[in-house]
Amino acid sequence: TALCIPELTPSKHRITIFRYENVDSAKSDIKRIFAHVLRNVYEVRMHEDLAMGEIYVIDCENLKLDIVLKITPVILKQCAFVFENVHSFRLKAIHYINPPGYFHNTITLLKSMLSKKLSERVYSHKTINDLTKYIPLDLLPSDYGGKQKSCSELAELWKQKMFEYKDRFDQLESMKVNEELRPEKLQNDELLGYHGNFKKIETD
C-alpha cells in the first residue's frame, strides 16, 4: 500500500509511505509491486505534485520471510539502477522502519549497489522514535502517533487518485518503443530490457 502525506516537510520534501499488508505471499508478484511503486506512483506525482525532494518511508512490519526471499539480487540491482538514474536528484532519504532481522542483509545489499551519496541516505529504524529524529512526528499518520490522517484514510485517498489515472496507466501500458528511431543505443538496455520498460525485466 502506498500513501502520501499531504503536508510537506520544512525542507519542502514529500513523504511517501509504503506498507506491506497481510497478503497471500504465494500470489505476490515482487516485480509488479516494484513497477507500481517506481512507475505509477511517480507518474501521478510528476503531474500533480510540487516538492523539492522525495522521502520514502517503508514499513516492514508485515514483511514475511517468503516475500523477502523473492527479492533477488537481480531485482535489487534493477531498483538501484532506477534510484541512481531516475530518482537520484530528488531522492533525499529512504527510511526502513520495523525491519525484521532477516531483512537487514537485503538492506545492506541494496546500499552496496548504490553510490556512496545515495547509500548514505538509506536508514533503518527499529522504532518510530528513531524515525522522528529525521521526520517530525506531526508529519506522520496517526497510526504512528502523528497528527496526519490514519494510514487507511490516506491509502484510500491515494487509491481514488490512482483510479482517476486509470486511462493514463492503460495508455502507458500499450505504448511501445520504435528502436529504429533511437539515435543512440541505450547504455543499460541489458538491465532494463529491450523497451526500457521496468515490467519487461527478466529475472532468473
UniProtKB/TrEMBL annotation:
InterPro entries: CRAL-TRIO_dom (IPR001251), CRAL-TRIO_dom_sf (IPR036865). Pfam families: CRAL_TRIO. SMART domains: SEC14. GO terms for cellular component: membrane. PROSITE patterns: CRAL_TRIO (PS50191). One of its GO terms (molecular function) is phosphatidylinositol bisphosphate binding. Residues 1-152 form the CRAL-TRIO domain. Gene3D superfamilies: Alpha-tocopherol transfer (1.20.5.1200), CRAL-TRIO lipid binding domain (3.40.525.10). CDD domains: SEC14. PANTHER family: ALPHA-TOCOPHEROL TRANSFER PROTEIN-RELATED, GH10083P-RELATED. This is CRAL-TRIO domain-containing protein. It comes from Diabrotica balteata (Banded cucumber beetle).
